[in-house]
């Protein structure tokens, strides 16, 4: 199909008043949402101090780290939860896709170092599994 700039301009002129009314309504809704974010602090991402390293992990435990940077979308385990190798522990959302993080071995979740809604970076510690009590 061939684009007709004149016809397009006539179309824009024809819908101009409706388009302007829509833009006013859209701006008001956006301003209202920003005000709500400011009131609730929803726009503020608290920093998550992560002070866990492989050296801090007790003997018989295994650290599960993030493979990719993203947002913790689902946290499916908590301390004390028994897991089997391959169980999904965490689901990370990145680039509008879901990435499951799986248990590398049978064991019991000893510690959780992430929370739903938190932004994480590749390599961040997520879960510690005690594999000595499998």
Account of the 3D structure:
This protein has 134 residues and is of the alpha+beta class. 27% of the residues lie in helices and 30% in strands. It contains 1 helix and 8 strands. The protein is elongated, with a radius of gyration of 24 Å.
- The percent range for strand residues is 25-35%
Largest sheet: 4 strands, antiparallel
Distance between the termini: 65 Å
Radius of gyration: 24 Å
Label the overall shape.
elongated
Number of strands: 8
Structural class: alpha+beta
Runs in which pLDDT lies below 50 for 5 or more consecutive residues are: none
Mean pLDDT: 89
Q: Strand-and-helix sequence, N→C?
A: HEEEEEEEE
State the strand order across the main sheet: 1-8-6-3
Query: How many helix segments?
Result: 1
The share of residues in helices is 25-40%
Summarize it.
By secondary structure, the chain is of the alpha+beta class. 27% of the residues lie in helices and 30% in strands.
Which features does this protein show?
134 residues; 4-stranded antiparallel beta sheet; 1 helix
Write the layout of secondary structure elements.
Layout lengths: L4 H36 L20 E5 L4 E6 L6 E2 L4 E7 L2 E6 L4 E6 L6 E2 L4 E6 L4
Antiparallel strand pairs: 1-8, 2-4, 2-7, 3-6, 4-5, 6-8
